[in-house]
Amino acid sequence: MHPIKAWYHSTIPDCITCHQVWLIIHVLVTIALCILYFTHIIQVSGGTIAICELLFGVLVRNEIFIALLHRFVALIPCFKYEFNRMLHCIGGLHVSSAIACLFWLLISLSCEHHGLGVRITGGIILFLILLISLTAIPIVRRRFHNTFEHIHRYIGWTSLIILIIHVIFIQLEKFDSFNTKTLFNIPVLILLAIIIIIFLPWICVRKVFVQYNQPSKDLTILTFPHVLYPYGSFTRISFDGHEWHAFAIALTDPCTDQHSVLIAAAGDWTKTLADDYRNNKLPQHVWIRRIKGLGFMHSIHAYRKVLIVCTGAGIAPALPYIKDPLPTTHTHILWIAKKHEENYGEYVWKLVQKMHLHCTLYDTSVSGRPGPQLVEEHFWKTNSQAVFVVSNEKFTIEVINALWRKDIPCFGALFDS
Known about the structure:
Helix content: 40-55%
Distance between the termini: 29 Å
Largest sheet: 5 strands, antiparallel
């Protein structure tokens, strides 16, 4: 490894650099736009730039757009790690777009001539986006996660309604007569795009019948209709249509046209789910989004040989690669868990056993909790090109940072992206 690259890898944790890169890129773009704006080289209003930033902010959270990016990036032949890692950290672009939107809206209201209606609605939008941004600060978001979700959704929708009124006031200021140019200018078209992007996932929400199974007290399996979803997909479910949770699609069955998710009793909601199953309190129907997103596991397609490290119920996203292996990618599974067969059921156990030549089982009840060294040893042993970690936050970050310092491509779920 080159000395400069070695220093970079040994001093900067990988899990934060990609977010910072997105922020740096956005800051540089904003500085360039400021120069062009204040020197009047471009004849674009600050309000138009602000609504463009808002468009970027919602677009990079749209599951269809992210899925298209995943498919495109997986085909790039060079700089695979860098491109895929930047894609996984695209939440940094979401954050920087919100900050840039605040900045340009403030410039528009303070440096441009507008009527009272535009100033009032613009000020309300400024306050609401600032409120959303403050609740999205990691320490606040983690401590008051449910409050953050409600504010992000409902204040976000309120901001959209005020934005519609804001754009109408802007159009009335420039109104001369009804014509195509007046009705379909840039701010109006961008606003229409934002509305479609935000509401499309909600239009595709359906209430479906669900089947439950509980191989052990710490694992619940939910099965839903429909099966044709790509590897690395995840689904969002809700019991009340209000609180939503995302889980990787673990099992698919074309014969019965069903797909399943494995849910470990790890947090408050998942523990309540396991308890409600035993007490027969779970509903027969749940809300589900028909549009499925692609997670970081889809980047497996970018490599010919990978090591997938799973702990506990983290085996769920790896099961599609076990049941129906990819023709273009060889996968080796390292499953770290306690008493695999006893805790995860006969079906999952037999499915993994079928692939025993390419699967290593590490029983923590016998060998204790492992560290990153175990993952590194299996990486070299299997001659893999990259490592994918599906585990809890502590172990994931520990492994990613340890392998980053060894210049080993390693990907893991982002818990605050």
